[in-house]
């Protein structure tokens, strides 16, 4: 019978649990989440289990990364289903703090990331976002004190921001990226996919198809600007409001002009109806 994970909701219970789990010098991996778990999260848990003897998952819907007009109130919360998934995967610890625990009265400190956080991608459209992410992740790292932490590559800019922050602040956490997990039609798994209507859901894979087609054109020697422009037109014609379709250096996120400029990542963000989707692939 699968053992139930320890559930910690206070810092004192978290620290007791961590001490018990790691008393034999076991490596601890953390998978930070906002809940509403799907197969992409499960893939990170399984990767964590291959890398470490003990696995913790945090579930916290972080208010500081949502702007006033965004979906904090309606963000899906599926605690019972999440707990069942994590129990089935043999997770050792769930860190499930409330807002008061993470941001107590008088909280006055923020992390202000630069570098990849100012690449002109997500930060251009959600200028509040990476400050909120960096602050909460820094707190999670210092609270849980994992040896490593796993983040999905779907949020590619976030992965680069967190990696740089952990390195710059000497947090002692190795950040590991996990591959994007997709539906059969190519749509990147996301907790926000539940917002899509049936018609929007059938249209959504256009993003992935366009990324693949654009990358192929670039590999075949086509003009970068033309390939990106044509891809952007296809996305708009499908009914999306496009925020960006960009080719960037895969490590620095700096703009590039050809495949010779380094490892290249194609990134897209677009809204269909009220749901904003992001995706990326290697070029």
Automatic annotation (TrEMBL):
<keyword id="KW-0963">Cytoplasm</keyword>
<feature type="binding site">
    <location>
        <position position="65"/>
    </location>
    <ligand>
        <name>beta-alanine</name>
    </ligand>
</feature>
<dbReference type="InterPro" id="IPR042176">
    <property type="entry name" value="Pantoate_ligase_C"/>
</dbReference>
<feature type="binding site">
    <location>
        <position position="181"/>
    </location>
    <ligand>
        <name>ATP</name>
    </ligand>
</feature>
<dbReference type="GO" id="GO:0004592">
    <property type="term" value="F:pantoate-beta-alanine ligase activity"/>
</dbReference>
<dbReference type="GO" id="GO:0005524">
    <property type="term" value="F:ATP binding"/>
</dbReference>
<keyword id="KW-0436">Ligase</keyword>
<comment type="similarity">
    <text>Belongs to the pantothenate synthetase family.</text>
</comment>
<feature type="binding site">
    <location>
        <position position="65"/>
    </location>
    <ligand>
        <name>(R)-pantoate</name>
    </ligand>
</feature>
<feature type="binding site">
    <location>
        <begin position="152"/>
        <end position="155"/>
    </location>
    <ligand>
        <name>ATP</name>
    </ligand>
</feature>
<dbReference type="GO" id="GO:0005829">
    <property type="term" value="C:cytosol"/>
</dbReference>
<feature type="binding site">
    <location>
        <position position="158"/>
    </location>
    <ligand>
        <name>(R)-pantoate</name>
    </ligand>
</feature>
<feature type="binding site">
    <location>
        <begin position="189"/>
        <end position="192"/>
    </location>
    <ligand>
        <name>ATP</name>
    </ligand>
</feature>
<comment type="subunit">
    <text>Homodimer.</text>
</comment>
<keyword id="KW-0547">Nucleotide-binding</keyword>
<feature type="active site" description="Proton donor">
    <location>
        <position position="41"/>
    </location>
</feature>
<dbReference type="Pfam" id="PF02569">
    <property type="entry name" value="Pantoate_ligase"/>
</dbReference>
<protein>
    <recommendedName>
        <fullName>Pantothenate synthetase</fullName>
        <ecNumber>6.3.2.1</ecNumber>
    </recommendedName>
</protein>
<dbReference type="InterPro" id="IPR003721">
    <property type="entry name" value="Pantoate_ligase"/>
</dbReference>
<keyword id="KW-0067">ATP-binding</keyword>
<comment type="pathway">
    <text>Cofactor biosynthesis; (R)-pantothenate biosynthesis; (R)-pantothenate from (R)-pantoate and beta-alanine: step 1/1.</text>
</comment>
<dbReference type="GO" id="GO:0015940">
    <property type="term" value="P:pantothenate biosynthetic process"/>
</dbReference>
<dbReference type="InterPro" id="IPR014729">
    <property type="entry name" value="Rossmann-like_a/b/a_fold"/>
</dbReference>
<keyword id="KW-0566">Pantothenate biosynthesis</keyword>
<feature type="binding site">
    <location>
        <begin position="34"/>
        <end position="41"/>
    </location>
    <ligand>
        <name>ATP</name>
    </ligand>
</feature>
<comment type="function">
    <text>Catalyzes the condensation of pantoate with beta-alanine in an ATP-dependent reaction via a pantoyl-adenylate intermediate.</text>
</comment>
């Amino acid at each position: 019978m699968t053992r139930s994970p320890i559930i910690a909701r206070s810092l004192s219970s978290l620290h007791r649990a961590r001490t018990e789990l790691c008393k034999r010098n076991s490596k601890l991996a953390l998978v930070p989440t906002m809940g509403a778990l799907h197969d992409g999260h499960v893939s990170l848990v399984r990767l964590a289990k291959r890398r470490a003897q003990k696995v913790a998952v945090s579930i916290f819907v972080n208010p500081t990364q949502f702007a006033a007009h965004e979906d904090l109130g309606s963000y899906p919360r599926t605690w019972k289903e999440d707990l069942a998934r994590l129990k089935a995967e043999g997770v050792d610890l769930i860190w499930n703090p409330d807002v008061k625990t993470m941001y107590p009265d008088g909280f006055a400190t923020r992390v202000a990331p630069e570098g990849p956080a100012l690449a002109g991608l997500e930060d251009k459209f959600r200028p509040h976002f990476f400050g909120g992410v960096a602050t909460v992740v820094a707190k999670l790292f210092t609270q849980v004190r994992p040896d490593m932490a796993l983040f999905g590559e779907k949020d590619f800019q976030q992965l680069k921001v967190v990696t740089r922050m952990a390195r710059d602040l000497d947090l002692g956490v190795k950040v590991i990226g996990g591959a994007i997990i997709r539906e059969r039609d190519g749509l990147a798994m996301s907790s926000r996919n539940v917002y899509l209507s049936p018609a929007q859901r059938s249209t959504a894979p256009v993003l992935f198809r366009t990324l693949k087609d654009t990358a192929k054109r670039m590999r075949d020697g086509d003009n970068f600007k033309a390939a990106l422009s044509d891809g952007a037109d296809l996305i708009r014609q499908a009914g999306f409001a496009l925020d960006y379709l960009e080719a960037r250096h895969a490590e620095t996120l700096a703009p590039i002009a050809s495949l010779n400029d380094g490892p290249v990542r194609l990134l897209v963000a677009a809204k269909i109806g009220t749901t904003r989707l992001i995706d990326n692939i290697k070029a």
